[in-house]
Amino acid sequence: MTLDVLLVYLPYTGGFMPNLGLACVRSAMAQVGYSSQIINFDYSFSHVVNEVSDPHLRHKLYNLENWVGEDKLQGLLPDINDSVESWVQHIYSVPSNALGFSVNCFNHAATAEVIRRLRLLGDDRPILMGGANCYFPESVEGISYLADAVVLGEADETIPEMMPWFMNGCHGDPPTGVLVSRSKGEQTWKIRNPPEDLDRLPLPDYGDEIWPEGWGYPDFPIEMSRSCILSCAFCDVHSRNGSFRMRSPKRLIEEILSLKQRYPSLRLHFNDSLVNGKLPYLREACERIEAEQIDVPLVGQAIIRRDQKFEDFQAMRRAGFHTLIYGLESGSYTVLQIMNKKSGGNLSQISQCLQMTHDAGIKVVINLIVGFPGETREDLLEAADFLCENAQYIDVVASLSTMVLLPGSPVSRFPEKFGVEPTTRFGPDWQTLDGTNNYDERQLRWSILYDRLISAGVEMGTVVKRMEKPAPSPPKPRSLWQKLAGKLNPV
Ligand code: SF4
Q1: Which residues does ligand 1 sit against, CB inside 6 Å?
Q2: 397, 458 in Cβ contact below 8 A?
């Protein structure tokens, strides 16, 4: 049977879970009678990358920066060409009336490459794009010409409205929430506000994705909210998702139960920016989950809140939360103020929150940023001191990143306000107006903090470990990679 739309997610984001966004799109299409199927090449390719035995090639592939932009992708193509070709052939072989691609900054270039190859093969199916890279018209400028239509922002309410227009040739003005690239690169679009009532959205449908057979991870994404209650200066969440919204605990539990029925031994990762945006809601959700004896391991991101009590963490633990990932970002009070990350209070209150989480039996995972504009070398050392003093409460550093300026974030929109040289803000080489914070300085600070954390016995997560360069050695012959790439078995 010919599908209406084949939904495709290309590498590489290191995915270890099915794609929630595409599962929502699939449900939204079904609402108005259109059939679709998801092919998640990122999911399957991640497994292949994990098995690459050449440490240099593995490091090259793990490094997500190597996937960003057409130039970088060209550098990878000799190593991944066979895989790219297998994705193209697979997509080409599935009968559908249209194609849909989920695009983010990491798979943007790979998606463009695959679409170009499909067109060369004579595949003229209309193309729909959406995803994390499709929130602002500017962010899709370099790729929208390859698509017949781009869904801007949260797609849940746009998809049902735009499908008849899209499937019937995209004639006339695009519906609200859709961008089209006309001739000569001219773009036309109408912005749509994100859905206000998340309870009204259908539950995501992962369709026929193979799980868990052929895959080692029983992890699934889920969400209880969208956007965030904070406005950190480096973050683009409000430009992408607007204001903070929550689903009701009742609807959340409905989804958990339906997933559990289908995938009995699953683990759930909350996709939310934070699970503790509204404490009364979180308390009610935890109580209900415990009362229903749902018994599913839960992981979520959270903010450090000075008003969260020990009983809250105990209730979370009883509900199944075994890990909380805190976007702590820095252990310097000064830097946290400049970042506008103030919910944790002072350093002693932040320490108390880490301790309460730990004492409640929840694993404490933190994310850190090095080199925020305004951070000095002294601030970094102060941050290192704080983190080392609290090492006993920190289980893992999941992410230790040098500062990047995300389009749509306050620091990118108002660079001078943060002391950033505006002409440099679009790349990894950005620097401050006084030149003291530049690419090399940030690499140095990264190493300083990394060494301090290691010497304090703090465990580094997989993503951080992947950034450690393997010792130099002669490159392995390419045939090894070709052999591994041949194992690729897309779902
Ligand atoms: S960084 Fe995290 S806590 Fe801060 S605004 Fe963004 S999502 Fe919210």
Answers
A1: 228, 230-232, 235, 237, 273-274, 303, 327
A2: yes
pLDDT 10s digits, 338-376:
999 999 999 999 999 999 999 999 999 999 999 999 999
CA atoms within 13 A on the CB side of 201: 31
Return the closest-CA partner of residue 195 out of 228, 156, 152: 156
Given the DSSP bridges, would you call strands 3-9 and 96-102 parallel, antiparallel or unpaired? parallel
ipTM: 1.00
Q: Whose CA is nearest to atom 2 of ligand 1?
A: 273
Place of tokens 């193509």: 77
- With tokens 């259908």, the residue in question is 202
What whole-number distance in Å separates Cα of residue 434 and Cα of residue 76? 35
Residue showing tokens 């008849």: 164
Torsion of CA 163, 167, 168, 173, to 10 degrees: 50
**Other CB atoms closer than 10 Å to residue 322's CB: what's the count?**
13
- Strand ranges (E), 265-392: 267-270, 298-302, 321-329, 363-370
| Nearest residue to 490 via CA among 209, 221, 104 | 209
Answer yes or no: is pLDDT of 163 > 70.
yes
Question: Distance, CA 406 to ligand 1 centroid (Å)?
Answer: 12
Q: Which of 223, 224, 337, 341 gets mutated to test ligand 1 (max ligand atoms within 8 A of its CB)?
A: 341
Cβ-based neighbours of 262, under 8 Å, separated by 6 or more: none
Burial of residue 415, with CB atoms counted within 10 A of its CB: 0-12 exposed, 13-18 middle, 19 or more buried: buried
**Token pair for residue 465?**
């470990």
Query: What's the rounded Cα separation, in Å, for the pair 213 and 43?
Result: 13
Q: How far apart are alpha carbons 401 and 454 in whole angstroms?
A: 15
Query: Measuring CA to CA, how many Å separate 10 from each of 14, 19, 93?
Result: 11, 11, 16
147, pLDDT greater than 80 = yes
Which of 360, 367, 356, 354 lies closest to 394 in space, CA to CA? 354
Residue with tokens 């519906």: 175
Contact assessment for residue 126 and residue 166, using Cβ atoms and an 8 Å cutoff: yes
- Cα–ligand 1 centroid distance for 405 (angstroms): 14
Rounded Cα distance, 130 and 38, in Å: 14
**What pLDDT, on a 0 to 100 scale, did the predictor assign at position 427?**
78
Domains (range + CATH), the chain: 3-189 (3.40.50.2300), 218-467 (3.20.20.70)
Angle at 271 between CA 42 and CA 274, to 5 degrees: 145
Going by pLDDT thresholds of 50, 70 and 90, the confidence category of residue 485 is very low
